[in-house]
Amino acid sequence: MGEQRAARWYFGGMASCGAACFTHPLDLLKVHLQTQQVARLSGGQMALEIVKKQGFLALYNGLSASLLRQLTYSTTRFAIYEVMKQQMADANNAVPFYKRVLMAGFAGACGGFVGTPGDMINVRMQNDIKLPADQKRNYKHALDGVIRVVREEGVPRLFRGASTATFRAVLMTIGQLSFYDQIKGFLLTTPYFSDNLICHFTCSLAAGAIATTMTQPVDVIKTRAMNAGPGEFRGLWHIITYTGKMGPGGFFKGYVPAFVRLGPHTIITFIFFEQLRKNFGILKQPTA
């Protein structure tokens, strides 16, 4: 058996940042579709409208905030999960699925809370395009957004929506990390797969579909909470009832672009992650 390498704690953050550079336009379209109360434009129509009015680079509006979010949110959750997984693995590098779920849930909760400020700035910068000129926030970049929120609205405002962001991150991390590992472990026991690009692609595609389905209702609520103006909603229940007026489908608004964005993001993240692990990871001592 060839040499085995374990991931370093920061590989997940690096891989997620790389993926964000490819999928940011899809993330921007998802936010726009979720925040329009009256369903009028499809994802393709929305993209054409943005490019027509603002130019192609407008699809990358808020990229700095997206990278800030990945550096905080994804680095934290991947780091905690990978370190815990490596410590709890037995001699055969196996961890029971229920333990993977628990570890992923804990890692997701930590990452979700830490990443809330970057997530909020990300949503605001992406949504800025469609606001009237007198309502635009016009953040120059992510750090400018953080500084201005602290100065104009106070530090607690940076963590507005932290509860829903944290809950979403728990579900997201379970759907992505624990299911990816579980599916990969199963596929490697069959004669049809080996630890290569095809296996990584298949596992990450399945994990992306699972994660999207688990998180979409929470994602819609989180996006509305973070994008809301002062006093627009009385609390979380008010946002839920407001969204519920559109029917059950309101909680899955933007599901297709969410999957179109999260699927490729998950695939690219894990492909980058696996390449980092296999080429630059910690060399493990072979077991007898």
Overview of this structure, please?
Strands 1-2 form a two-stranded antiparallel sheet. It has helices at residues 11-35, 43-54, 63-88, 97-114, 116-127, 142-153, 155-158, 162-188, 197-227, 236-244, 255-280, and strands spanning 5-6, 282-283. The chain has eleven helices and two strands. It is mainly α and 288 residues long.
Short description:
The chain has about 290 residues and is mainly α.
What value does the Rg take, in angstroms?
Answer: 20 Å
User: What is the succession of H and E elements?
Assistant: EHHHHHHHHHHHE
Specify the structural class. mainly alpha
Number of DSSP-assigned strands: 2
Give the overall pLDDT as a whole number: 86
Compute the number of helices.
Answer: 11
In helices, the fraction of residues equals: over 70%
Biggest pleated-sheet summary: 2 strands, antiparallel
Q: Which term fits the overall shape?
A: globular
The portion of residues forming beta strands comes to under 5%
Strand order of the largest sheet: 1-2
Poorly predicted parts: none
Span from first to last CA?
11 Å
